[in-house]
């Protein structure tokens, strides 16, 4: 075929574009085939003979969009009846004759299996619901069953038989916002709602030519139209709403056999009606509602799938996409369209042809509104998005970029965003990637695309999508999530001899990308995969002690490794947690040995029991020489005893939350213990300040009971108090020696957010020099409160680099770059450009480039 095959079909033009060429031949004859929408991944399995033997059992194969084998496995379950992919994820679902549904990932790993029917299944078909896929099953006995959500067999509805015999053919249609089973037997249609709330209705099949029965029925993706074939060779398009025949075409004179399968192209169906795509062995016939037809030679046995914006074709050596040509593409490729004129004008000017200037002058002429420059730019940008060939994309986008220079009436951000999306699409379409169109990309959304790439382990492509589309700004955790997912895949797939290599690789990648990840999640994945030693290595990379201890107790039930980690943290709660775990999981003799082995833990345990659980301390005394071990250690190191006791008191103060008396008592206990340990004065000063804060909060709550201040940080207390009693807040900040500059900023934020600018100016003029704010900081505070004009009044007070910062805070990046240029600081100009890009202000970024790029 031609790489770009256009055919007229009535008022439409149909276009077939090559998505992928396969390096090897894939035989699709006598196969069940499933194609994943918005992806291009497909699966095949040979149809089994009536008599099943070990020698005739098929293989299920899953292929990448470029035809390379993704995974393969011998089929060991019941005879396959139907295969389909999920809508939102690349998961393969297989329905078997013995009433089972099995779900696999793209590696042919079984994810779930459940029964969908108690009878033998003859046929099955999916239908679209609002959020997922439904599944209709026809059994050997002619009974219909429906799963409104194919993954929830508990909500299965058994409709039973619609007619006496098994129908000749059937499908699922949509009418008046409800789904119906449409079955055909001889000369009648039978319909029943899939929710089982309506009676079976009978409708005659009204065809002008004689026939005995319908051989095939296929519903469109939305369910509004059907394609059918009679035994006499008549091809039909029907309305699902009325079940009336919209058009019929007799192909019996040239084609005797019925089509292998059918699909409907419903693009622009509201104005032009649907197009039926009828697939025979090596060719595809397109039929519209006005009986116009076109034929595409496929050269091999193929399979088709209706997409939202076209039809996907899988052949033995190719994957193609069939679609109705968009209006913008027509205008950009015709001889008279505005888009075509812009392309011709640009190319002629680039070749120093004066005719180009004449063409552009026509587009810029205000007296020719039917052919404007803005229309031309819009058509070129839109046409580029519908191209799969990068050369054609560049042709249209270069012309659009040239047009943008000539007008200010078109938003340059549209062009910039399209450029980014096309770069992403071209990367996705590279092997093995995703073979998707612009409309399918928009349907999936960036995070849907990333999810599909993750499921196939294409993390480099995920990173490219994230980088090009600047997703980190909208989804701050995406980098961490991708890195964690990559690491989990790595540990899941590695061999035992690779444990050290994998640990180093993950650690170095995290350091390289300066990204904070949870090594606990990665270690847990290793543990679940049966790789305990790898999990233990990964736990050591985690900096947080509590999750480390908790996971170590899961991975290593004996608890000693977790106890060593808890002792390293010096956290009494974690030590107590480990000891309780060991006490519950191991015999008393072994517990005694653990206490002997870790005397510091035993000492902490005794202290904790003395403070919180004296009964346990008595049990220890009765049970033997535990206390001897503990107090022998304490007598050797009384300082450590005091420190552990102080930590216990501090932990108790933290747990007390709003209980003032308990907090004060715990802090006083910690104070006594630290004095006994002989620690430096800083810790004691901090405890004294904390007690003072609590007493202040107690006094404040007498007049402001609704604030619930007890236990809150001093910063939060002041923030809550400033709007109510600024004098009291000033006094507390002064007495408790709160950072003066930080407090000035807090007051400035409050005054600016309440538009009290005179008070703000007065307050700042009286502020001490060491507590004053720079003018650029004040500008940021006022601008953040939503009053840019007021913030700009402070600009005359800024000089030098402070003025650059002030303009940056106002988001005036061009002005900031201008001041930086006056200062001769080119690094600062580059920073302004980068900040404009990060803010998504393409216009300012481009202006800085045009002014100062060398």
TrEMBL record:
Q: Which GO terms describe its biological process?
A: endosomal transport; intracellular protein transport; vacuole fusion, non-autophagic
Q: Which residues form the Vps16 C-terminal domain?
A: 517-847
GO molecular function of the protein, one example? actin binding
The record's keywords, sorted A to Z, are: Endosome, Lysosome, Membrane, Protein transport, Transport
Q: How does it sit in the membrane?
A: Peripheral membrane protein
State where the protein is found: Late endosome membrane; Lysosome membrane
| Pfam families in UniProt | Vps16_C, Vps16_N
User: What Gene Ontology cellular component terms go with this record?
Assistant: CORVET complex; HOPS complex; late endosome membrane; lysosomal membrane
What residue stretches are annotated with the Vps16 N-terminal domain? 5-408
Q: Which family does it belong to?
A: Belongs to the VPS16 family.
Biological role stated in the UniProt entry: Plays a role in vesicle-mediated protein trafficking to lysosomal compartments including the endocytic membrane transport and autophagic pathways. Believed to act as a core component of the putative HOPS and CORVET endosomal tethering complexes.
Q: Can you say what this protein is called?
A: Vacuolar protein sorting-associated protein 16 homolog
What is the species of this protein?
Oikopleura dioica
């Amino acid at each position: 075929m031609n790489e770009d095959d256009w055919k007229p079909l009535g008022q439409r033009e149909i276009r077939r574009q090559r998505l992928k060429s396969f390096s090897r031949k894939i035989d699709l004859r006598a196969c069940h085939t499933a194609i994943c929408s918005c992806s291009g991944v497909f699966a095949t399995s040979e149809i089994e003979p009536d008599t099943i033997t070990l020698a005739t059992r098929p293989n299920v194969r899953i292929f990448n969009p470029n035809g390379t084998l993704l995974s393969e496995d011998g089929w060991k379950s019941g005879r396959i009846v139907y295969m389909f992919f999920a809508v939102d994820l690349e998961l393969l679902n297989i329905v078997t004759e013995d009433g089972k549904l099995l779900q696999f990932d793209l590696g042919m790993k079984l994810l779930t299996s459940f029964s969908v029917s108690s009878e033998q299944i003859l046929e099955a078909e999916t239908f679209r619901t609002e959020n997922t896929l439904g599944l209709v099953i026809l059994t050997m006995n002619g009974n219909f069953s429906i799963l409104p959500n194919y993954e929830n067999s508990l909500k299965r509805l058994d409709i039973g038989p619609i007619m006496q015999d098994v129908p000749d053919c059937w499908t699922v249609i949509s009418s008046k916002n409800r789904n119906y089973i449409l079955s055909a037997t001889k000369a009648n249609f039978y319909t029943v709602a899939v929710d089982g709330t309506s009676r079976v209705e009978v409708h005659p099949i009204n065809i002008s030519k004689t026939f005995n029965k319908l051989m095939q029925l296929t519903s469109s993706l939305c369910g509004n139209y059907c394609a059918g074939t009679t035994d006499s060779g008549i091809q039909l398009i029907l309305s699902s709403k009325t079940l009336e025949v919209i058009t019929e075409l007799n192909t019996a004179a040239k084609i005797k056999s019925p089509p292998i399968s059918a699909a409907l192209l419903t693009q622009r169906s509201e104005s032009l009606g649907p197009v039926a795509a009828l697939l025979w062995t090596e060719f595809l016939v397109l039929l519209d509602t006005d009986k116009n037809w076109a034929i595409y030679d496929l050269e091999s046995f193929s399979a088709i799938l209706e997409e939202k914006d076209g039809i996907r074709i899988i052949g033995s050596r190719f994957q193609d996409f069939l679609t109705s040509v968009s209006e913008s593409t027509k205008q950009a490729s015709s001889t008279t369209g505005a888009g075509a004129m812009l392309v011709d004008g640009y190319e002629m000017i680039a070749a120093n042809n004066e005719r180009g200037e004449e063409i552009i002058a026509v587009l810029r002429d205000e007296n020719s509104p039917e052919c404007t420059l803005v229309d031309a730019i819009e058509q070129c940008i839109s046409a580029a998005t519908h191209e799969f060939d990068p050369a054609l994309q560049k042709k249209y986008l270069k012309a659009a970029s040239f047009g943008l220079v000539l007008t200010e009436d078109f938003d340059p951000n549209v062009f910039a965003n399209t450029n980014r999306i096309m770069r992403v699409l071209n990367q996705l379409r590279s092997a093995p990637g995703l073979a998707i169109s612009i409309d399918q990309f928009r349907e999936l959304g960036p995070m849907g695309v990333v999810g599909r790439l993750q499921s196939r382990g294409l993390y480099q492509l995920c990173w490219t999508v994230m980088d090009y589309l600047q997703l980190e700004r909208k989804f701050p955790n995406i980098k961490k999530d991708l890195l964690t997912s990559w690491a989990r895949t790595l540990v899941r797939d590695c061999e035992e001899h690779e444990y050290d290599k994998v640990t180093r690789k993950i650690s170095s990648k995290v350091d390289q990308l300066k990204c904070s990840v949870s090594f606990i999640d990665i270690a847990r994945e290793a543990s679940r995969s049966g790789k305990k030693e790898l999990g233990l290595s990964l736990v050591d990379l985690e900096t947080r002690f509590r999750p480390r201890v908790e996971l170590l107790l899961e991975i290593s039930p004996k608890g000693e490794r977790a106890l060593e980690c808890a002792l390293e943290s010096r956290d009494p709660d974690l030590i107590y947690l480990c000891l309780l775990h060991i006490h519950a999981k191991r015999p008393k003799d072994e517990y005694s040995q653990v206490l002997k082995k870790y005397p510091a833990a035993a000492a902490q345990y005794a202290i904790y029991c003395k403070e919180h659980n004296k009964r346990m301390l008595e049990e220890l005394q009765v049970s033997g020489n535990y206390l001897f071990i503990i107090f022998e250690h304490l007598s050797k190191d009384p300082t450590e005893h005091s420190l552990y006791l102080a930590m216990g008191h501090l932990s108790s103060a933290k747990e007390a939350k709003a209980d003032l008396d308990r907090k004060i008592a715990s802090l006083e206990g910690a104070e006594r213990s630290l004095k006994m340990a002989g620690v430096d004065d800083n810790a004691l000063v901090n405890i004294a300040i904390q007690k003072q804060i609590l007493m202040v909060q107690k006094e404040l709550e007498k007049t402001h009971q609704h604030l619930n201040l007890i236990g809150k940080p001093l910063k939060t207390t002041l923030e809550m108090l400033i709007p109510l009693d600024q004098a009291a807040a000033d006094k507390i900040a002064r007495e408790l020696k709160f950072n003066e500059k930080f407090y000035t900023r807090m007051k400035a934020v409050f005054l600016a957010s309440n538009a009290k600018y005179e008070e703000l100016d007065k307050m700042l003029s009286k502020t001490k020099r060491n507590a004053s704010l720079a003018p650029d900081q004040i500008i940021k505070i006022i601008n953040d409160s939503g009053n840019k004009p007021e913030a700009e009044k402070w600009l005359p007070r800024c000089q030098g680099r402070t003025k650059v910062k002030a303009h940056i805070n106002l988001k005036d990046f061009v002005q900031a770059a201008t001041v930086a240029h006056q200062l001769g600081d080119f690094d600062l100009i580059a920073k302004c450009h980068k900040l404009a890009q990060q803010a998504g202000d393409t216009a300012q970024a481009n202006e800085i480039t045009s002014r100062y790029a060398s």
